[in-house]
Amino acid sequence: MEKVDTGDVSNQIEEESKELIILDIPEAEDLKILLSEPALWPELCIYRVPRKLRAINPAAYTPQLISIGPFHRKNKALMPMEKQKLRYLAEFCKRIGINWTELANQIKEWELSIRHCYEETFDDVSSDKFVSMILLDSVFIVELFLRREEKYNFVRKQMHGNFKDDFILGKSTREFGVLGDLILVENQLPYFVLDDLYEFSIGNSNEEGYPSFFDLVRFNFEDYLSPPEIQEDKNLKCTCDCFSCLYCFWITRCFSCQRDGDQSAEKEDEEGSLDQEKPLNFTDLVRKSRSFRHPVSKNNKSVMKLYSATMLQGAGVKFKASKEAWPIDIKFERGELKMPRFLADDNTERVIRNLMAFEQCHYPNEPLICDYIWILDFLINTEKDVDVLVRKGIILNLLGDDKTVANLVNNLGLEITASGSCFYDLSEGLNNHYENPWCRTVAIMRSVYFNNLWRGTGTIAAIVLLFFTFTQSVYSISQIFS
Q1: Out of 7-21, 241-255, 366-380, which region has the weakest mean confidence (pLDDT)?
Q2: Exposure of 159 by Cβ count < 10 A (0-12 exposed, 13-18 middle, 19+ buried)?
Q3: Is 184 within a domain?
Q4: CA dihedral 213, 218, 220, 225 (to 10 degrees)
Q5: Which Pfam families does UniProt cross-reference here (predicted)?
Q6: pLDDT tens digits, residue range 40-96?
């Protein structure tokens, strides 16, 4: 064996010790303060998007026109809007008759609670700069919302003008672009700051007739909080007439393998409401509007397998669009899968990605939007699956070809972590339906022999003729041996 030089070992230990001394370890007193703070403050509700999610599509999480809060305050591309914040601050103080220092004092009282709402501490931002930033951002949002409400409200429009010269409201692209930035997960202020500042300001204003802050927010975010009205296409021809529907009904009732199960006994959870609980921020508000009533699975397991829409349709599953697009509520009963409508347009990916990122950070054990997209991802593998869902009214495709929608849905689920799904029981019901031979037999009979009036009538006539022929044959044979 080779002999180890003890002198070399000592020198190596000494060098490593020097490297440890270089480490930036806090002083004992500072370390004591650090350890006395919780790892996560209970107020925490505003996060940076995890790197693995941001890497898929960075633009989906980055504001394009305006920075709100501390995360994007150094983005030079957003600096031009800082002048508009100052202009709105002056206009708001003039509106309510309060000096801006009174507003700043209110925010100063909430500073520590506001800082605790963010995932990062921002120790490099002084107290005065932090308060100034929150003041400008919060007043900007409130003034913008008031101006938009006045712009589209005839009575208040008479009082405050038409805003044609407004830098933001004068151009619809800027107006709706700013609104889109206000729901991004990294571009948030705590909801309580906006709500309390609004109540403080309006309460000290001489002018009456202002709506509540929640009504004001709901008006401005109407496109994000209320599902789009979708007109039924009256030009679509029905694939079944009355007689074939009767045939389908008779066969389904006789041979269908789908059980009512526990889902038919479950009642819709209608206790959730946007008005009962204040949201944490605007991202949370949009999420609540789409998911506060949802199906509950007794088995909180991850969905690992679900057949595509085309395959399920081939096994006799009927797809039906819910009358309401939101909240998310998917049901499978008596061979019918009822789903909310999914609007696929230029803004869909941005909105859904931010809602999913927020769930991954704040609601890891209740990722309702993620669960819904996960199910949609299983149902859609190719453009043929999209076509099935479009024809049934479940997907409203404003992106053009079906392949674009398929790629959109398939990419939304990338890097999403799921420990369980509220739709596990639903997926099991669909899989059992597909894998049952009777269901596929019934589906083939319906599609081949009962898909229209004439073929269905011919099938019934053939069956009746076969029956009488068989009866006559039996009768004839019985006569021979009698």
Answers
A1: 241-255
A2: exposed
A3: yes
A4: 150
A5: DUF247
A6: 889 999 999 999 999 999 999 999 999 999 999 999 999 999 999 999 999 999 999
